[in-house]
Amino acid sequence: MQTCDLQILELHIGNHFKTQLQIKRIYLLLRRVKLTAEETKTKGRPITTPGRSSPEPAQPCSRPVLSANITMHIASPGSLSTTPGGAGPAEAQRLSECPGQDLVEIGSEQSPECSTDVPDEQPTLWVFGYGSLMWKPDFAFRSKQVGYIKGYVRRFHQGNVTFRGRPGKPGRVANLEQDDTGQTWGVAFEIHGEEEVNTVLKALYTREVVSGGYVMMTTEFYPRENHLRKPSAGSCDSLSSLCEEGEAASPQDVDTNISLDRVPCLSADVERKKSIQVLVCTVTQECDLYLGYDEVDNMASQIVSASGSAGTNVEYVTKTADYVRMHIPEDEDSHLFQLDAKVRELVYRAHARNAGSLKLDLSEFAHMFHETYPESHPESVKAS
Length: 384
Ligand SMILES: N[C@@H](CCC(=O)N[C@@H](CS)C(=O)NCC(=O)O)C(=O)O
Known about the structure:
By secondary structure, this protein is α+β, with helices and mostly antiparallel strands. It has 10 helices and 9 strands. It is globular, with a radius of gyration of 23 Å. The structure holds glutathione (GSH). The site of glutathione has 21 residues, from helix 2, strand 5 and helix 3. Its EC number is 4.3.2.7.
């Protein structure tokens, strides 16, 4: 029976972290990939942490770049059976040679035996995406789920001069702005296994911090089943017994005859219990290339004329909006959809007149305006 011996994985994450506090937060997150034995007795339960329900406030960006060594104790790669050439396709195959095992305390001194009754020692990291990470994670993941984080709203206030812009002609990419009553919908990706976690952290750092000027932080992610419409007055009457007994009503417990607008009222702590701590990349107003608020028309004009190594800024905005429309109907992000509509309108208008007026070849996007906004009529498209 193979022994999964532990090995210290020294993870150097150079960083733009602003304070030792932020380094400590990332370290705590990485340490939280440890799961206690009792927590994993209910196999498959997502990592829940009693952490704050509101997100960790992003720290101001500052210089000089600090470097942090984050050390994780996790099972040795020897216990992993990688598919030839490393992790498999986007949905990473379970890499552990101890399949089907619960996670245990990672970093414990004992070297657990890999057997059907010894949990898998592999770390699990959750990464939350709300912009291009949703439709282009570019890393192997074990599972993903739609949900939301609290205390932030999605905006396009971060400039970009690499993937979707050029120096002197920045594009705009997604970031999070703090908003106490806000919610940002997106996708949480589960990365499982020592090599996977290490690879993804390094890739994220290169893509987000080095190329994007983002910083990494942690917050609580709530899977979509946590999202309950505000019960209308009295709609919980029939459920109060369940709520009062502390037994949270969950949809299957509830009389299915309740009309749609009488959703089960889960007590707040049930929502908290179901949260997962995630790593998320955003920016603060002190970060490089932070552009901040501008009128939608101005932002759209900037976006329509920007492109970078990954493609046009139009593609970035429209693919983000399309992903949300298609996969996250709960997300009513008016900022995103107004910006998307204006970008498509500008592209359509330019092509309706003369594609030459656009510096970029956006012909592939010209049709998008009508496809997305069929109720719009060309004549309603104001002349520039
Ligand atoms: N952190 C946000 C934004 C991610 C993002 O857009 N990052 C930029 C960094 S410049 C990127 O990767 N762009 C790749 C692309 O534009 O194709 C998310 O969670 O989605």
